[in-house]
């Protein structure tokens, strides 16, 4: 059997959740498990996140999967519902909604008695400059105050566009959030994702929404998970299925893009873009064998890659770490010109999961 395998370290996931508790001790934690728990597998991750206060997902289907698995914590639909007929399902399953445009408000008010009767909070989204979802100031002040007057329990919610970097928009977003929070007082607040939890602890307020940090990848380009005291949760491996010795001047792989400058040993590993391993590497990429880094050579194919094993004891069947505790997913992503989030989320269903 082909041995491309994803291992999930549940103890590492629990450790990272505890890091959130340390960094935001007075806030409730809404653990983001959208996109199949960032590619890690919701079913595999929920037990390790059992001590979270709530879950966050992108759509109703993801929320219902959590309920079907037996978890009763609050769940927030961070994009809200997409049609009015979803509202009844939301209420029946004790799922909370973000509202970010007038139509969603109309749907909410049409089910006011049932929604309030279930003690469900309404998360009202502020568009403070990211310009994706939400109401701008001063419209959101009117929305929240009117919902409060009608008996709804409201959470003012916002998402930073540049929490991972220094950017002038950060101050604008913070100031608008604080302006609205004061104008709607008392109102609960939530604006911190993983990067903001680290960067602005004074903004943790009532709810924090950790995502990538839970899974042991960094929200910052210039800080590793080790710098942040986090542990990688996913280890992605495959096995060596062939060994070749090539001479100087010989080529490797599609397009013959790699030419050996000396005699060398190479191994073929059973992994490729069909498994979700990225194909395009503007920078040199590496894998790890027994903790030792070695380079990927030539193009990544659908099912195979070639690696340099010159001077390395790597017989057939040797396990190769594509990313994990030795070769961080963030480093693979950086070589690929992307971010760890994308690599984790785009794994295919083909690798075995353990």
Structure description:
- The structure is a single chain.
- This protein has helices spanning 10-23, 34-38, 42-46, 60-68, 85-92, 102-110, 112-117, 139-149, 168-183, 194-199, 329-336, 340-345, and strands at 5-8, 28-32, 54-57, 75-77, 95-99, 121-125, 153-157, 188-190, 207-208, 234-246, 251-252, 258-259, 264-269, 286-289, 292-297, 305-308, 319-323, 352-353.
- With 354 residues, it is of the alpha/beta class.
- It has two domains: 10-215, Alanine racemase (TIM Barrel); 234-353, Lyase, Ornithine Decarboxylase, Chain A, domain 1 (Beta Barrel), CATH 2.40.37.10.
- The strands form three sheets. Strands 1, 10, 13, 14, 15, 16, 17 and 18 form an eight-stranded mixed beta sheet that branches. An eight-stranded parallel beta sheet has the order 8-7-6-5-4-3-2-9. Strands 11-12 form a two-stranded antiparallel sheet.
- The longest helix is centred in the middle third of the chain and has 16 residues, at 168-183.
- The mean pLDDT is 97.
Question: Given the C-alpha coordinates, what overall shape results?
Answer: elongated
Give the name of the CATH superfamily of the largest domain.
Alanine racemase
Structural class: alpha/beta
- CATH architecture descriptor of the largest domain: Alpha-Beta Barrel
CATH topology of the largest domain: TIM Barrel
The residue ranges in which pLDDT falls below 50 over 5 or more consecutive positions are none
- Structural domain count: 2
Average pLDDT confidence is: 97
Say how many strands there are. Answer: 18
The major pleated sheet works out as: 8 strands, mixed
Protein name: Alanine racemase
GO molecular function: alanine racemase activity; pyridoxal phosphate binding
Cofactor: pyridoxal 5'-phosphate
EC number: 5.1.1.1
